[in-house]
Amino acid sequence: MLEAAHQPDEVPLLQVRSVRKLFDSTEAIRDVSIEVANGEFLSLLGPSGCGKSTLLMMIAGLIQPTEGSITIKGSPVTGPRPDIAVVFQQPVLLPWRTILDNVLFPVEVLRLPRKDYVDRAMELLAMAKIAEFAKHLPHQLSGGMRQRASICRALIRSPSILLMDEPFSALDAITRDEIGVELLRIWQANRKTVIFVTHSIREAAFLSDRVLVMGRRPATIAAEFKIDLSRPRTIPMMEEEAFNHHSRELRKAIEASHVH
Amino acid sequence: MFIKAKKLDSIFWPSLITLLLLLAWEGLVRAFHVRSILLPAPSEIAFTIVSQWDLVSKHLWPSLYLTVIGFLLSVVSGVAVAILITYSDIVRKGFYPVIIVSQVIPKIAIAPLFIVWFGTGATSSLLLAILIAFFPMTINAAMGFASVDHEIHQMARTFMASRWQIFWKIRMPNALPYIFGGMKISITLAIIGVIVSEFVASQEGVGYLIKLAGGLLDTPLMMAAITALSLSGLALYGIIAAAERYAVFWQTSRDDVK
């Protein structure tokens, strides 16, 4: 049924199969299976603390599942890997590095030649509209600009999967909408696969190709929705009936998942 | 311009208060004809420093020399032990609590014991300085290494940074403000360690000179020695503070913006 959404001959880029996670004896995640196609924008939507971040950290290789398997292009995830990058809730930039040096941090730790990546870093910063702050320190930028820099850092090594853990939840509502549009623009230019964790219905409906609604403790996938709004998406689209229809459906699914 | 004016402001007012206090001291001593054996006037102390400079400096340099050496050894050993605390479970769980609890021992009281063990010379002074200055250095550095934000640590791991890289690129710079905080405490403690050791038993050093002048009831010389020592301590502290502004540039520049 998932395959129906994409070309049937396409092998999924990411496969999560029957994953279960126990912390001591508490079950955080129960029987989650997900397939994500190359280039897809997928959101995991659920209330705070429902275990969706745990799932994301397992895909990132920071936490091992108790049962089940996670594979990328057929190879199992056993730890952090260069084709996955994470954008966290906070920008987590290093305060003693300039924005450019922060963006180049992943290049540096892999001991790749810095000069090969400076141009790309500047391109990414330009795309995120913060190129003129390349030589600034993080504390000289606003929260929204810092988060854009952290997205540039995640993209510097051209990962095939970008994992985003409520990346805009620390920003104010107006900045949030704007940076969402920016993210889609960057995503469309690079065509990465994005897995986006959020507790905002609006955000999930606005950004995604597909939304998985997750139920609370232990986390399971309660419902799946395809968002067929046209792209590129713009802020005025959030006023349209098609958008509101999707938002209502997502809200109903979340409420239903709370009942059981 | 605004920043400069603000900096000037932070120097101007304390200087003015100090000057007023010195003038009040000078005025009171003169007005009530206080004998200089009880309390010499600031002008007399200044005069004594200049006229007896040979004697004062002869005892000042050895004390400062031991202070600086003791301080540097405390910094190196303190940071080294802090690294062990950070990376070794045995050291953190076994030794760290002992180090913290041993803080309650008044280490100055151990000075006579050091004289018994290591004699009346520079070795005792140096060891006492290190003993006192080492603890705040270790505890501050250990706190700095440990205080790395969980998300920053996770970020570094997702980008596949090794433990070695996480230490040099993240823990070390993160700990720098704490290390400098520890250095500022340690430098003043190192001075105390050296002086106390010289009080107990020594043939040279400012501690010895202060005790000698006290025995001779030469209060101006005593005050001259104390003043020279205090000003030297202030200079050493100033050097560390200046190095801090340079090394921890991302925090000092943040203060400037405010």
Provide structural commentary:
The complex is a heterodimer of chains A (260) and B (258). By secondary structure, chain A is α/β, with parallel strands linked by helices. Chain A has a domain at 3-77 and 198-259: Rossmann fold (3-Layer(aba) Sandwich). Chain A is 34% helix and 23% strand. Chain A has helices at residues 52-59, 99-103, 105-109, 115-127, 143-155, 173-190, 201-207, 241-259; strands at 14-23, 26-36, 41-45, 67-72, 75-76, 84-87, 161-165, 193-198, 210-214, 221-226. In chain A, the strands form two sheets. Chain A has a six-stranded mixed β-sheet with strand order 6-7-8-3-9-10, with helices on both faces. A four-stranded antiparallel β-sheet of chain A has the order 2-1-4-5, covered by helices on one side. The longest helix of chain A has 19 residues, at 241-259. Chain A is globular, with a radius of gyration of 18 Å. The two termini of chain A are 24 Å apart. Chain B has 258 residues and is mainly α. Chain B has a single domain (52-252), classed as MetI-like (MetI-like fold, Orthogonal Bundle), CATH 1.10.3720.10. In chain B, 84% of the residues lie in helices and 0% in strands. Chain B has eleven helices and no strands. Chain B is globular and about 75 Å long. Chain A binds chain B through residues 57, 60-62, 80-82, 84-86, 88-90, 92, 94-96, 105-106, 108-110, 137, 139-140, and chain B through 149, 151-152, 154-162, 165, 169-170, 173, 249-251, 253-254, 257.
Number of helices of chain A: 8
CATH superfamily label of chain B: MetI-like
Secondary-structure element series of chain B: HHHHHHHHHHH
Which stretches of chain A are low in confidence, meaning pLDDT under 50 for 5 or more residues running? Answer: 1-9
Name the quaternary structure.
heterodimer
If you consult CATH, what is the topology of the domain at 3-77 and 198-259 in chain A?
Answer: Rossmann fold
* Principal-axes shape call of chain B: globular
Report strand order across the widest sheet of chain A: 6-7-8-3-9-10
For the largest beta-sheet of chain B, the strand count, sense and barrel status come to:
none
CATH architecture of chain B: Orthogonal Bundle
Approximate shape of chain A: globular
Reported by name, the CATH topology of chain B is MetI-like fold
CATH H-tier superfamily of the domain at 3-77 and 198-259 in chain A: P-loop containing nucleotide triphosphate hydrolases
Could you give the count of β-strands of chain A?
Answer: 10
